[in-house]
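Note on ligand handling. Small-molecule inputs were canonicalized before submission; formal charges were left as drawn, and no protonation-state enumeration was performed. Where a ligand contained multiple stereocentres, the stereochemistry in the source SMILES was retained. For pyridoxal-5'-phosphate, this procedure yielded the string shown in the input block below.
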Amino acid sequence: MSDAFSWHPEPELIGFRDPATAREALEMFGKAIWDAGLDYLYDEASKRPVVADSYPEMRRRYFGETSEPAPAPSDPSTTEDLLREFRERIAPYVFNSQHPGAFSYFTAPPLPVSIGGEVLGQWLHQGVDVWAAGPIGALVEEEVTSWLRKLVGYGDGSWGVLTSGGVMANVMAMTVARDVHLARLLGQNEPPRGRALEGVRVYASDQTHFSIRRALDVLGFPHETLRVIDSDDAFRLHGAPVDQAIAADRRAGLLPFAVSAVSGSTNTGSVDLVGELADVAERNDLWLHVDAAYGGAARLSARDAHRVPDLERADSVTIDPHKWFFQGYDIGGLVVKHRDDLLQTFRSSPEYYRSPKDAPLNWYQYSLEGTRRFRALKLWLSWKHLGTKGFGRLVEHTNDLAAHMVQRCRELDRFEVAPAEPELSVVCFRHVPRELEDGDAVDAYQDALQRALEMDGTGWVSTTRLRGRTYLRAGIVNYLSTTDDVDAVLDALVRLSPGVLASLR
Ligand SMILES: Cc1ncc(COP(=O)(O)O)c(C=O)c1O
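Structure output:
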């Protein structure tokens, strides 16, 4: 090997051209990295869902007394030193999605095969934007997004693209709605900009993800563009109130142009009445987007698919494999009914992307993003490994765990679930001890109970606000958990309650 890299103690891990000198070093490095991952998994992740330190404590522990980032390292280190530091300073302080009591937002434990796909994807290093920079990456993405399209119920002529997550997918969906549908309604050939974005309306429920508002903001719509409609007692948006709002807005001289529904809301997993909303959208010539970032995966299960119906009626659907498909971050997805809609929105022809005439699949023309890593590979491997049926089993299992949690809450004294019958695998619940009369005190108690559980380490749930009150929220996407783990979390809350109450007195 040339000594071009001899300034480093491990030159083979940088100058790896010659397998005779580098392969063995790379093999040892691969084993060391994988071992560090497994040590994390079995030594740390199995202990507790998350470290009990508060934010300031974590900052001090990680950064040191100054609580501020250290300067960038100027001199090389060995991988042995790096992994030692990883084990000491990183691994013990992770949020551990693999812990069976971890019922976090929508952070599922990633399947080992997905992690493997992530490693291979990085070695292959496809720049999935212009054809030449990632030809096989382009085709595998076409294949996995065709599986997502089929799952949603779309047919020929539809298209899909992988994104960094649901936020990006929702932003892209609203971009398409603006540049394709609003342009059409305005009778314009050009995508609407500036003044043309005034006086138009988009309808979504009070349970919609924050990214819909963010999308409209960054796309240049005035703040009042988003018309927030009340959801029902089960947090679902119905067609009738949207219909009424559209009629009122038309009378006021406004231009309704899109409905954004959610199938599997972040707060409660609620599923809007997409069929009704599709009827309303059709009658009123509105674009229908459905954010099924989380809930779309229910379609993997033949048993539970009916819980997320009518997605095929939407013009665009967000569906995120890094939520309920148990994929490592990041991999989100947007599918659209008409391929041309994406192309019309995002097509551009920079002079440096000169691909051959017979190579038309340039992904940058279908996405807001440019260079994207080979996200498709981990999902492609996982889907082949489990099959749709296997994925469906994992989804069903988590839905069953949620049902079990609801049942246990009903049996326990003074636990309330909202909504009373969750539609998917999110359970919002609260403990209302007899001695707390006042609503604010009950709210403060939920926060304190959540923190007590975090410190106890048996499990982890988040908190949220529903109709102005604080609830504990279990997002059950952990396929490794069992009913015993659910019971352990609820038992821990009961056990911790007296101490929490005493601390609030
Ligand atoms: C319904 C819904 N849509 C969109 C998103 C945003 O997804 P991401 O954070 O992956 O960008 C989330 C995140 O939880 C979500 O629950």
